[in-house]
Structure formats: structure tokens, C-alpha cells
Amino acid sequence: MFKVAIVGSGPAGLSAAARAAALGMSHVLLEKTDHLSDTIFKYQKGKHVMATPSNLVLRSDIDFEAGKRETILGIWDEQIAGHKVNVMLHAEVAKIEGKKGAFSIHLRNGEVIKAEAVVLAIGTQGNPNKLRCPGADSPIIQYQLDDPGEYYDEHITVVGSGDAGIENALGLAADPAQRNVVTILNRSADFARAKAANVALLEEAEREGRVIVRRETTPAEVRENELLLDTRDGQEAIRCNRIIARTGSQPPRGFVEAMGIEFSSPEPGAFPKLSPVFETTTPGIHVIGALAGYPLIKHCMNQGYDVIEFLNGNHDLKPADEPILAEKFARLPGNRSVEEWLEVFGRNVLILNDLSTLQLRELLLDSTCHAYEPGEVIFRRNEPGSSMFAIAEGSVAVEVNPADPSVTVPIEQGSIFGEVGLISGRRRGATVRAAEPVVALELSRTAALKLLATSPGAARAVNAISIERQLLQMFGSGLTREDVAPLVASAEVVQARAGQVIVTEGADDKDVFIVRRGSMIVEKQIGDRPVFLSYLPAGSYFGEMAVIDGSTRTATVKAAIKSEVIRLPGQGFLDLLDANPALRERAMKDMAGRRATNAFIESRKDEFSGAVDLYSQTAAFLVDNGIGEATDVLLIDEKLCIGCDNCEKACADSHDGLSRLDREAGRTYAHLHVPTSCRHCEHPHCMADCPPNAIKRGPDGEVFIDETCIGCGNCQRNCPYGVIRMDAKPPKKPSLLQWMLFGSGPGPGEAPYSWRKKKAEEEGVAKAKLAIKCDMCAGIDGGPACVRACPTGAAIRVSPDKFLTFTKLTEDAE
Where is the Cyclic nucleotide-binding domain (predicted)? Predict the structure, then answer.
């Protein structure tokens, strides 16, 4: 009978076994393979293993510093032998029975090990998530990469952009002599799961052309030597000889639950419920390491040390991160301990309810705690900010009317706010004040995205809150949270690739949809061709006509770009209308307008069929050129344009001599030209990977780059429309005095555009380049200079919902 049996020899298990050996505790370390630390052993050859977080003290009887995989494994093998740890290799555990003080651990080979306590340090790497697409059983897919140096002259795609995926991609592209074409897919625009250092290395490799990084892209189908992708602009096939799938892993739930251990939720990625000393709901069985939801090596090793100390009777030992958390909580009222504050945050904040104590501690290390007095401003309308706040105690008041601060909407304890800035990158949409004494947790954008990516419960909670607020904002009419609660509970978020049909003309389905992200185009079949009717930006809803009057669908609605829609069951929507007459009246008015448009087309389709066809083609051209995700776009009517270049010159004179647009560049259809100028996308691609967070959104939706730009060029690479360039900052405009005394410049006053541009180019070689793009002349009276300077009115700036509408066609026809 051992005092403790440790299952698994990863960093957590090794540290626990080494501590037990150092204390003289009777122990056994069980490892199913023929070597120690199988997780690290399976890292790719030559991998650099990081030792993060850097400010966390390491507690362990074995050493660990950042270094090569082979070096670390060699040190551990040597030190485990030196500590005389009792190791059993080829000892795979089949099941564990018994109770605290008398456990029986049954091995696959039939042997039974007896122990008073069990420490599970088995990790999750043995249960990788499989790809979910046609062809997922293809032999070109592998879930492990042992030696990147084995592959030559291959087109290799890495699926998954966590640390493992990024490190695999970098390893495969490290040696140019291997001549591999390496692509990595990231389903979102942000690398929420990866360490900042790995993201920086990947971006460097992307800049140098060693790795192709495809954001907002997922595998659609695996074919022979080819991979079909779902991208933000539709489907695309790329050459692919090999797929390295690093899409995460799941805990061995069946094995663990068979011991009577409960998990924090039914979600597949949930972790076991644990006490502060890592004990599960089955007394005597403890869980540490990745299976506890705490995968960083330093944390794992500290847990191994701590759990053995506890089993040895040291109940006063505090976790290694205790001083860091204590410092964070010191600014909060009440003089509570770290454990008390952890209880408050974990219990009171909805999005944190499913986190284990260990996960919560890790999240708090990356977040900021605040205390606010009644009336104190938390943030103001139009301030920049992409963090999200969670209310642990108290409530806040949101000022919904800028002209009257007394008109507020409350947000209660347990909820969140600031999620709009997190999702869209826009400036703060309202001023938020503490309505009473408030304790709140501020999650940085990185911490919030990581939470949503790794905690299904948190993602579900944020999703429900954002849907509820979108419903209240859209439908208004005095609705309350209670009114929309049934719809929120039944709502479903649906991802749609570019071109994917959401509603089909003539179909008999009965759901209502809200465009949550992206945009939709509406088409109607006229004769033998689809005719473009209208454009629906984010925040619009559709599908209510068939629900209200029971008819079939009168038009087809499909995604203009990669989008998200919220699907609401038709009956639930009808119930909401029945209970709210004002909302029904508004819905009927909207429906009447859409029916009038359809009737108008049908009645006069022969009369102006040519105009319908031209307009439909024009609309399709504009959507193909990025108007589908724009909030503000510059268009030039070439029938009116005289080529004077006043638009470029005015732009340059408003922006230190460097024009933000290229009038001649871009594409043209008929007489409509889309020059190279920023579209100010609803969800800007340029913002995805900006290290200093220099790209912001203004209150009117304008996307601009501030003075903190470091010239890394990520935004230029990420922009799909080529509207950002890297350029030297031009010299200051010469003053009259400078010209008179020193001959600076060509003459007094404003220097001509041509001179300033030439001067910037001359000095640009020696100057660091910065990102340059249109900012819609924010802060300049009169609006965009390009439009104001056009003598013929050829240049216009419009939002797509104003331009892409059948109303213009009907007005022209009439």
C-alpha cells in the first residue's frame, strides 16, 4: 500500500513524484509508455519550450527553464533518477476503484496497485479533436508532428492556431532547403489561444514569406492533394499534400467519470470540479496539470509540488501565485483574502461560473480588478477601448441618451458590459457609471478572447447577453429583458460563408433572422435570372414576412461576405409580436415596404428589364469589391470625373502631404469606379494583428491609425483591398519665416503637393515607415476632403445600405 500513486509522468506528475521522493513519502509514478513525460517527448524535435509566466515562482524539486525539448527531457531524466523516484513504465491504468485510504489501481497487464491517495496527472493529449468536414478520414491528415525536418517539397497545411499549431508551422518552414509551402489556418482574426511570443514569431514568418497565414478560414473538405477552404470571401481550393491538425484535445471523460468524479459542466471541453487543494468530488483522488485546465508547465509543476505537500499534512501552503493575486485584490474594499475574492468572482459573475478555481486564478492573473464609488465614471462615450468588464458586486448605469445623462439603463451584478468594443473594435458606445459601490473585473481583449475560446460556458453566456441586447436595441418599443427571454433561450447563432444562402425564394420555412456580423444581399428571380433587390448590413433583420402572414419566401437572402446570423424560431417571434402591439405595428410597416418593392418589380419588370439587369450587375460588382462589409466607401462617377486629381491633392494637404487614396487605381464597372481608398469595414481586417493596438474605430465608424503605430506592416498584409501602404512621415510644411530666412521649401505658405511628396520620398529611405490609410478626415470640419474638393460632384462617400437599394432604381424608373 503506497501513500500516493501518481498517474502520468508529465511535468505535473514528475514534480509530484520528485516531491514525494524528497519527503520520503511512499509513492509510485505510473507511466503507460516506455519513457517519462510523454507530452513533452511528443513535442517536435528541437522545439523551444517556454517557461511562462515569467513572474511566477517555480516550486519543484526538479529544474525547469526555457530551452530545447531535448535538453529539458535530459535534465528531468537525470534528476528523477537522482531523486530515486519509484517509476513504473509500461503501466497503463485501466480503471481505479475503492475509496480514500484504500484505492485499487488496475493496470492493463492485470497488475493491481494499492494506494491511499491517487493523483491524476494524465493530461488530455491522448484525445485529440478530429477534423469535422468531408474527407476527415483521409490518410493525409495527422494529429502529431514529431520531426519537422522529415518533410521536403510538400504543400503542408496546419489546422489550428494555438501554440502547438504555430510551433509546427514555424518548424516546418524553418529550413528553406526543405522547400515546403506551409500554410496555417486560423478560424478567427485573432490568435486567442496562443502565447504572445509565438504570435510574434508567426507574424515575423508571415512578413518574410516563410508561412502563409490564412485568417477567418476553416477546412471545408479534404480531397486528394487538395484542401477546400471556407474563407471570408467564399470557398477556395489550395494544393495540399499533408495536413497537420492541431485542433486541441478533450479530457478522457469516460475514464475519469468512472471513478465518480464530476465535471464542471456537460460541455465536451469541461474540466473536473476541484477543491483549492486539487481534490475531486471523489475524496482521495486529486487532479493536476492539463486535466485540471491549467496547462502551462510552470503551473503544472507547482501543482505537483503543492498536492504532495497537502497530502503530507501541510495545509497552510498557499499557491505560488498567491502574492500576485493578493496584490491585485489589495485595491478592493473589504480586506478579504484571496480565497474569498476568488469565491466572489467565481460565484457572482455569470461568465465565470463554469471555471474551476485553477482556471479562475489563471484568468485573474491576466486581468485587472477595480472598485468604483457611486457615480464614478467607468468609461465615457467615444473613448477607445476593447476590454470587457464583469460586475462582481453592485450595478452600473448606462447613459443611453447623450443629451440627457439622467436617462440610463441598468446592468446588474453578475452581468458584463463593454462587449461591443471587444467584438467590433468600435469606441465606447455609451458612458457607463457606477450606480452603487461596484467591484468589477476588467478583462483585456487578449484575456477575454482566450476565455471565450477555452470556456464553452463563458462563450455561451456572452453569446446570450449579446443576443438579448441586440434584440432590445433593434426592436425597442418598450421591450424588457423578460419579454425577449424566451427568444434568447431558443436563438441559435449560425455561421455563413460568403455566398451561402440563408433563405431561399419559394421555400416554406418559418424562421426570422438577425444579421449579427457581416452583411446579406437580397435577390429575386425575375424571368431566368436573379435580380439584386437590396443590401442588409449588420443589425438588420429579415424573414418576418413569411412568419407573419404564413406565405412562402418571396426572395432569396444570402451572405455577401463571411457572416453570422441569429436564427429566431418563427413562433417565438409571433408570440413576441402578440404581446407587444407597438412592435407588431413596426414589423407590419417594414413588411409593407418590402412587399411594395416586390410588387413594383413584378408590375414593371418588362418595362425596365434592361435597367434591372444593369443595376443587378452593378450591385454584384460592388459587393465583389468589398462593399458588402463596408460602412463608408468612396465611389467616383466617371461620367462626371475630369481627372483633375483634386481629390488626391486635397487628401494629401489634409494629411501631412501624403494622400490616402489612389484615384486611378481600383476597378470600374460601367461608369462607376471604386478607387483605392479605405472602406472602413464593419469588422476591419487591419485591426486583427496590430501589436500596439494603434488602429481604432471612431464614433462614426471611421477606422484610423494613431501615433503609436510601429510600422510592422501587419495591417497592410491583412487588408484584402490594398488600401493601406507603408510610407515615411513627410516633412513639416515650411513657414513664411523659414522660407524668408533659410530658403526652406519652394515658397511661402502651403508647399505644393508635388514638392512635399518628393521631399517625403527623399527622406523616406532613412526614416521608419508608418502605416497610412484614409481616416475619413475625422476631426476636420466639412467632412472628407476628397468629396469637398471635387469640382464636378463625381466623388461621393456612401454607406452600402444607402447605395445598394432598389429604391434608387425605382426612383430612376419613375
Answer: 351-452, 475-594
